[in-house]
Specification:
Elements (H helix, E strand, L loop, with lengths): L7 E4 L5 H9 L4 E4 L7 H7 L5 E4 L7 H7 L5 E4 L9 H6 L4 E2 L6 H16 L2 H10 L19 E5 L3 H10 L8 E5 L13 E2 L2 H7 L2 E4 L13 H6 L5 E4 L8 H9 L5 E4 L19 E3 L8 H19 L12
Helix pairs in contact: 1-11, 2-3, 5-7
Bound molecules: (2R)-2,3-dihydroxypropanoic acid.
Organism: Paraglomus brasilianum
Protein name: 3284_t:CDS:1
Keywords: Oxidoreductase
Amino acid sequence: MSVQIKPRILLTKTLPLAAQKRIESFDKIELIHWKDGVIPRGELLNLVKGVDGLLCMITDEIDEEVIETAGNQLKVVSTMSVGYDHVSTAALKSRSIPLGYTPGVLTDAVADLAVLLVLAAARRLREGISAVLNGDWITWSPTWLLGSQLTDKTIGIVGFGRIGLGTAKRLKPFLGSNGKIVYAGRTVKKEAEEVDAKKVEFDVLIKEADVVIISCSLTEETRGMFNYEVFKKMKRSVILVNIARGSMINQPDLVHALSENRLGAVALDVTTPEPLSPNDELLKFKNVTVIPHLGSATLETRTAMANIAIDNLLAGIKGEKLPYQVEFN
Ligand code: DGY
């Protein structure tokens, strides 16, 4: 009687309950499950050896060394994320290993959060909450904690993919008839017409926008593109929101610009590093709001992402085209 060898899968975190139960229910795979927070590099390199499939997260650095260590039998890498800057596409491409990702299902959750951050920054939510908690709420006053509103303002979105468009659709009703939306990116987007958004040069956007929302993929071209020179060109009242990746912003330059009062308010879902130390200089500015990378953090979205990641993984194990496969350039 021949013993059938099951494909081995490494899962680097625990998935939302329904998806976790689903992956555990497959009796045709051998699941290696790292349960305790971020898998340390040494454990990753140890556990990845000999696996057929890897289901990873944005917190795992999947580089040449990891792919090489995994071995020639590796058939698929599936990341439970839409962004895949943590995975070496070069290492996968050179070995013809497909990469699965999870586009589409997190658009609503991330766009909702972008709106939350814009409004939180514009209406000084952090300061308001702190005042209540610290006992600084003395009385209602005509001049206390005045923010700005979005009516008649210009929203500038850098990167007008699904999430950029979703954010624009949600913000449009706040702008009134004289507000406008502009975007910067590589190509003119037909769907921008849905919100009457115009494509402008990046330099024009950063000068004209009252609200700048960073919503593009992190690449070698976009890394650090928001630097001191850019901050200097922005309006002093600008609201800057980052829902993409922390490394889009040169953070020491951001601190420098904030220390010179060059920016109205900043709200970040993503930082460098993550987690950000509670003692980080950035947090000393009361007009800076930071939340811990919560863009896709709804039960519905994370479950959908996990299920797509599982589907991608299973297809890859079988040698089939992944339902959501990254096209390597
Ligand atoms: C992604 O999927 O890339 C997000 O950043 C996770 O929230």
